[in-house]
Design brief:
By secondary structure, the chain is mainly α. It is built from 18 helices and four strands.
């Protein structure tokens, strides 16, 4: 770049240590603390609205389901989350030791570097115009009196009127070219907006890719599932502070290591990492919150939300919807998105209750945002052999295999998912399917008792009922009060 003799000169700069964002806590320490504060802060918000029984119409599951279907106590969940956060903090501390200290004072220099790159790009304009038969100099001459900046750009970045005196020493100056205002504005936008946006975009792509393929492997390999990942699926009915309830090895591999690699590959600085790690934490907690809140921005930014991930925690959808925490493109590209729509009566009940409390314009909104009719037309891959391989499923009575998915790909997905639950003899097994079938029966009965008929339904044709509302008077966690609602029962 310095080989272009007519480029404006680079300014001098002096680096100064960047002050802490929240004195006296160093930024690197704050980067470790904020995700933990975000995790428990947002979790306690959802716990608060749950124990106060606010917004019951937006719950994905009833309090009875939480207490009956989950296979782990609250103390165990909190313990394992704290273990993962200790590991996360230790790894983050080591990662921070490899990072240089942050300084400021070079920003204007970097903006000018981008402005010089823009000027170099402008030098190619005359040649590009010549390839289509246009004379850049002639155009610039005609436009010069009325549009001098455009004329300068057409001439390859020649702006004679912008030359100024630049100091070369304390006692002498020379004439040097200057930048057009638009060049500096564009360079500033690139430096302050475009580059950070690309860094965050790359980090999101890396963490989504890392988590999708490792998460999918945890489900497709029986040993990996029963040894590590089945622990997370003891929570068949997720709640917010169970988002990081994992086997310690899995928590390190999927969450801590994946986020660290994304941070490094994106070339983020400390404060960018602070925002990325904290934002990822908010998203993960929200995905496990157990509520489909219409005013929650995190649930509308992408289709990967609490309803989408809740399907993955059900016995009939456990081998689908692997994408997390941000987008669903890998599920859609590789055919692992759940195709059965709102197959569960529990989702129908929540949707109808929300419809009554919310707006008529949302009457066709579904929890999964999918049409069950699509199941029959979807390519069955990668589930084409799951029904054949579900060797233990035929021994389970049909009444314990509820809800029934629509025919087609969803039927294969449900068969493979339920077989995986049966493979997990320690925390899964037939009792999980029986409990879920019982709750499904209760949800159907609730809808049948509804005083209003004819409400639009997103259930399959097998579920010959419609209804309006099932308001539950107790909290999602099965008790009305308490700061954290911890119990020791399973």
């Amino acid at each position: 770049m310095d080989g272009f003799s007519n480029l404006p000169p680079l300014p001098e700069y002096h680096l100064t240590p960047l002050p802490s964002l929240l004195p006296p806590i160093p930024d690197k320490l704050l980067t470790l603390l904020l995700p933990i504060v975000a995790y428990w802060g947002l979790s306690m918000f959802f716990h608060w609205i749950d124990t106060r029984d606010y917004f019951p119409q937006y719950r994905l599951h009833t309090p009875a389901e939480v207490s009956k279907r989950n296979r782990v106590s609250r103390w165990e969940v909190i313990r394992d989350v704290l273990i993962q956060q200790v590991v996360q903090t230790a790894v983050g501390w080591v990662l921070g030791m490899t990072e240089p200290d942050d300084f400021f004072g070079k920003e204007q220099y970097d903006i000018v570097v981008w402005a010089r790159r823009i000027r170099i790009a402008e030098s190619n304009i005359p040649g590009l115009l010549a390839t289509v038969g246009l004379n850049a100099k002639g155009l610039a001459k005609n436009l010069g009196p009325s549009h001098p900046m455009l004329a300068g750009a057409l001439q390859g970045g020649q702006y004679p009127s912008l030359e100024n005196m630049s100091p070369v020493s304390s006692i002498s100056k020379i004439s040097a070219p200057g930048f057009a205002g638009w060049e500096l504005m564009l360079a500033s936008a690139i430096y302050w907006v475009l580059v950070p946006a690309l860094q965050f975009g790359l980090a999101i792509l890396v963490v989504d890719t890392w988590q999708y393929f490792l998460h999918r492997a945890m489900h497709m390999n029986k040993w990996l599932y029963t040894t590590f990942h089945s622990r997370h699926h003891r929570l068949y009915v997720p709640y917010a502070y169970g988002a990081l309830y994992n086997h310690p090895f899995e928590g390190f591999l999927l969450d801590t290591l994946g986020a660290g690699i994304a941070y490094k590959l994106a070339g983020m600085n400390t404060r960018q990492g602070m925002a990325f790690f904290t934002g990822s934490t908010f998203k993960t907690v929200d995905d496990h919150c157990g509520y489909a809140l219409p005013w929650d921005p995190l649930q509308h930014m992408t289709s990967n939300n609490a309803g989408y991930h809740d399907v993955h925690h059900q016995s009939w959808g456990i081998k689908t919807n692997f994408s997390q925490p941000f987008f669903t493109f890998w599920d859609r590209l590789l055919g692992t998105v759940w195709t059965g729509g709102d197959v569960s009566a529990r989702y129908e009940r929540s949707r109808l209750a929300a419809q009554k409390a919310f707006d008529a314009e949302n009457e066709n909104t579904t929890i999964t945002r999918l049409n069950p009719a699509d199941s029959a037309t979807q390519d069955p891959k990668p589930y084409e052999n799951d029904l054949r391989d579900a060797t233990d499923l035929p021994s389970i009575p049909l009444q314990s295999r509820q809800p029934q998915p629509p025919a087609g790909k969803a039927e294969l997905q449900a068969a493979g998912s339920r077989q995986q639950v049966l493979d997990d003899q320690k925390d899964g097994g037939p009792s999980v399917l029986a409990d879920e079938a019982y709750e499904e029966k209760e949800a159907r009965n609730s809808l049948k008792r509804s005083p209003r008929k004819g409400a639009p339904s997103t259930l399959s044709s097998k579920d010959g009922f419609k209804g309006l509302r099932d308001r539950v008077p107790t909290s999602m966690h099965g008790r009305a009060g308490g700061i954290i609602g911890v119990d020791t029962s399973r």
